[in-house]
Amino acid sequence: MLKGKTIILGVTGCIAAYKAAMLVSRLKDLGADVWVVMTKEGAQLVGPLTFRTLSGNPVVTDLYSQEFQNSPVPHISLSQKADLIVIAPATANMIGKVANGLADDALSTMALSTTAKKLIAPAMNCEMWRNQAVAANVEKIVKLGWETIGPVEGKLACGESDIGRMSEPEVIVARIIELLLPPQDLKGKNILITAGGTREAIDPVRYIANRSSGKMGYAIANEARRRGAAVTLVAANVDLPVPADVRLVKVESAQEMLAAVNGHYSGADAVIMAAAVADFKVKNQRSKIKKTSELTLELEETPDILKSLKKGGKKLVGFALETDDQVANAKRKLEEKNLDLIVANGPDNFGRDQARVSLIDRQGRSTDLPLAEKAEIASRILDALF
Question: What is the pTM of this model?
Answer without folding.
Answer: 0.69
